[in-house]
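ingest -> validate -> predict -> emit
validate: passed (alphabet ok, no gaps, 103 aa)
predict: started
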Amino acid sequence: MIGLGIDGEENESPAPAIDPELERVHAGLASTFISAYGQNDVSFNGISGYATIQFDIGNNPYYEVTALTAVPEPSTWIGGALALAAIGYTQRRRLKKRLRVIS
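emit:
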């Protein structure tokens, strides 16, 4: 692997080593999944309103798709309330001016 040093000069550095034990564990998990479900890969296209998928690795494997509801942050609520108050205030002033002109 070739990289740039601090001074901008190219230097050759060894590629990072991969732990063989970690590789074996990941391969074991993948092969266990393939043998248990007879599938080579898993894909998930989110359905509107469903944002997470969970797998349980216990004795009774299952999957669960959980629906999540977006809740605005308090600052969003405050901003909305202030905007509504500003609109109400300007409309009230506008109405008072019209009533004075008519009277």
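Helices lie at 20-37, 74-102.
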